[in-house]
Specification:
119 residues, mainly beta, six-stranded mixed barrel, 2 helices
């Protein structure tokens, strides 16, 4: 079982807004080579890249069903209330002249379209 940070965002007060880091990245659908720009939350407690299921569907990303579900845990080690990860999307990510092909976990009920891990 993979342990990942809680990606569910709560209401942020002014102090939290000062600590939040937003990055604009380019995403390209592999099946159509169609690109979009998205604002992603840079999260120091995330252990993977995460995309909102709602965003993935809205933008027409091809969902790839996982053979095994991935159960995720919050920082306090409780199971994430949104349930396990059932799908991924394969994309090309563009940032400051760099391109990388990635598989991104897709999870329901996210406030952010994308959450990026920050090592």
């Amino acid at each position: 079982m993979l342990i990942k940070a809680n990606t569910s965002c709560c209401n942020l007060d002014n102090e939290d807004l000062l600590r939040k880091v937003i990055v604009k990245i380019g995403l390209e659908r592999i099946d159509m080579q169609k690109g979009i720009t998205v604002e992603a939350l840079l999260d120091s407690s995330a252990t993977e890249l995460v995309m909102s299921l709602e965003f993935a569907r809205k933008k027409g990303f091809k969902l790839k069903k996982l053979e095994r579900l991935i159960y995720i845990r919050n920082v306090d080690r409780t199971l994430n209330k949104e349930g396990p990860i059932e799908h991924i999307v394969e994309v090309n990510i563009y940032y400051q002249g760099h391109r990388k092909r990635m598989e991104i976990d897709v999870i329901e009920g996210q406030k952010w379209n994308m959450i990026l891990e920050m090592p």
